[in-house]
Amino acid sequence: MNKLFLRPGTLCSSILLTILTLIVSSAVRAHNVTPGDAGYIQEIWGVHIIPFMYLGAKHMVTGYDHILFLFGVIFFLYRFRDIAIYVSLFAIGHSITMLVGVWYGWGVNAYIVDAIIGFSVIYKALDNLGVLTKWLGYQPNTKAATLIFGLIHGTGLATKILEYQISEDGLLPNLLAFNVGVEIGQILALCVILIGMGYLRRSDNFPKYAVGANIVMILLGIALMVQHIFGYLHSHTTH
């Protein structure tokens, strides 16, 4: 996998792009379920396969933390086999902790999980830029990191779902349907990312774009971490 080091000349344009991205995505919050969807989840019981598949897909395509990490994971992957392996590792990790967490009621503080998810975006961008290898003196295992961060992303989702106290009647089929929807949403997001990456990779300026895009990822990851750390601190000072 190719690596690129930071080039200072791209920093100003990257910061501007980050600001614009934050404005566009300000209405979206990591792992949040919209009030309408939350009310629906709380009020129904029994098996509802299609609605839960829809909710899972909707969560994935609107969860910019997932998409940012997925974007970073496949950024320098060119072969379909490699893309399939890494995306599958992320999906396996995501699915395990989401299903097990909700089924057994294992919740973690949402602010802490989401702050770690922000760190996962930073980590992957630094890995893409070759910074981790330079700092550590060796290349961290990218497959293991993808699986581990997939587990964390799934924990964040499980934590949010638990807040809405889904009925135990039909819980397992509904959770499985939700997870299938998440994977469908992931495939849709992946298709859009790959189409965009295809255009970028044909450009002679791709190395410059690559550095700028990963700097943007770092800044967005920092924004996510700061947001949720302050949220955690505020939630404890108000109790």
Written description of the protein model:
The chain has 10 helices and no strands. It is an all-alpha fold and 239 residues long. It has one domain. The longest helix has 32 residues, at 206-237.
Descriptors:
239 residues; globular; 10 helices
Overall strand count = 0
Largest beta sheet, briefly? none
Count of helices? 10
Cα separation of the termini = 48 Å
The percent range for strand residues is under 5%
The string of secondary-structure elements, in order, is HHHHHHHHHH
How many structural units, i.e. domains? 1
Proportion of helical residues = over 70%
Task: Enumerate the spans where pLDDT stays under 50 for 5 or more consecutive residues.
Answer: 5-16, 22-30
Q: What Rg is obtained from the alpha carbons, in whole angstroms?
A: 18 Å
Structural class of the secondary elements? mainly alpha
Categorize the overall geometry.
Answer: globular
User: Could you tell me the mean pLDDT?
Assistant: 80
Summarize the structure.
By secondary structure, this protein is mainly α.
